[in-house]
Amino acid sequence: MKKKIFHYMCFLISLSVVCTFILTLTLCYPLFFEHTKQEVKDEAVYLTYVFNHNLSDPLKLLHNAHTQTRITWIDINGNILFDNSAEAAHMENHLLRPEIQSALDIGIGEAYRISTTLGSNTYYYAVKLNDGTILRLSRTNISAYDMLRGSLPILFAMMLAIYVIALLAARRMARNIIAPINAINLEHPIMNDLYEELNPMLLRLENQNEQIRQQMKKLKNQQREFTTIINNIEEGLILINHSYKILSVNFSALEILNADRKINYIDKNLFTLVNNDALYQATQSVMKGERQEFYLPMGSKTYQIIASPVTKNDKVKGAVILFVDITEKRMAEKMRQEFSANVSHELKTPLTSISGFAELLQNNMVRPADVPLFAGKIYKEAQRLINLVQDIIKVSQLDEKNSSFMKEPINLAAVCKQTVLYLNDKALKKQIKLNFSAEPGCEITAVRQLIDELVFNLIENAIKYNKPNGQVNISLKRKPTHIALSVKDTGIGISEEDLPHVFERFYRADKSRSQINVEGTGLGLAIVKHIAEYHHAQLTITSKINKGTTITIKFPLV
């Protein structure tokens, strides 16, 4: 701004000086010329008077005249008698000069002659004396152009001085002009008492500030919403730019990577948070535009890592890294594989028996008296096969969270009492006593079919693995938050090694139970576990070898 003010001031001042100078010269030069003419005429009058009244020695008079005017004395024939600026003898005849002719005719004459070569303007004035001779006076003035050219050094000196003054003035003016502008309150522009010319700009600034405030508020709200959303998703999420700087990371990712939440990882390198070769290699590939997907074991869990490039105009600008916990999925896959293998094995056993007995009967290799025995064995194995298939179907339905199950209010005490009555004969055959007790108000909302199955399996299991003269104690207790169903036996118990696996499908602790011949599908407790989970019930088990086992299920009160 200082430069602009300086340039404008210099331009205006220079233009003013030059115009003033030219105008002054134009107006003053004619006056100067008229003044010269008058001086020449005054001198001519004086000399004419002297010549006409003192003719004793006119040449002496002319020689002694001290003047800047050129004086020429000419006789009646045009010959030069005297010239104070040149040798008279060498000068040409002046008879035909206009001013001489005029003086001879009317007594006075004048003329102007301009020399383009010398750039001068000469004024001639001639007077006829009493003796008939001519006295001519002349003075040469420089032209207006030469006068201007001669004044240029002065003009340049003046302009230089003006430039220096203009520079100092421009600095001061710019400082005075800019000072209020520098002091503008940009947060509230319209509150500034400034130049009126700037009011439209200040108003626009105020409007822009308001727009920016609204946009910033909107961006902050969007940022908070985005942060809230990503921090509430179970999957870990990391956003990075092309320089591997972290743009965003959610709480799940920090928890997965066992990182301190108090540390701000934004703008830090990804590998200050993650130190893993597989992830490093994957990120390198992603930055080349290649999507990566792989499994990454971390501690006791397994994560599916999905890393995708973020591109703009076919250039990779960053990447999105997603951590998906697939531990349960992998375990479920493993369990399904094991379940399939176990199902194949469990189905093969009765089918092999049925096939073998049928083959003997077909080939008449059985005595007629033994046919009923073999038929009974085939029937028994077929029933075992049917029970196995039914249990497999039940487990599959529970795995799929079958929505066809209808919940209803159930008196759990009545279900337990009915099951005890149904299994009492079976218990008496093994010399086992069933004891049942229930507190009032033991009602739950559940699927009757599944609760019947759960109670039946628990009590039947306690009978199967009990000892002769043993007991099974079934109790129901009402608590403020739940109904507790407990089935306690005095049987062979379960070792600590086998205890975590008893609810797995087809699992049997063979070593500890080898002394008891147990028939079943191996899915009883697995079904119990699935039914408990379906009803959001808590399942616990405690056991000691040769002391017995206690299974407790806590049904939440709705």
UniProtKB/TrEMBL annotation:
Its EC number is 2.7.13.3. GO terms for cellular component: plasma membrane. Residues 202-229 form a coiled coil. The chain crosses the membrane at residues 150-170. SMART domains: HATPase_c, HisKA. Its main location: membrane. Gene3D superfamilies: 1.10.287.130, Histidine kinase-like ATPase, C-terminal domain, PAS domain. Pfam families: HATPase_c, HisKA. It catalyses: ATP + protein L-histidine = ADP + protein N-phospho-L-histidine. GO terms for molecular function: phosphoprotein phosphatase activity; phosphorelay sensor kinase activity. Keywords: Coiled coil, Kinase, Membrane, Phosphoprotein, Transferase, Transmembrane, Transmembrane helix, Two-component regulatory system. It is found in: Membrane. GO terms for biological process: cellular response to phosphate starvation. Residues 342-558 form the Histidine kinase domain. SUPFAM superfamilies: ATPase domain of HSP90 chaperone/DNA topoisomerase II/histidine kinase (SSF55874), Homodimeric domain of signal transducing histidine kinase (SSF47384), PYP-like sensor domain (PAS domain) (SSF55785). PANTHER family: PHOSPHATE REGULON SENSOR PROTEIN PHOR. This is histidine kinase.
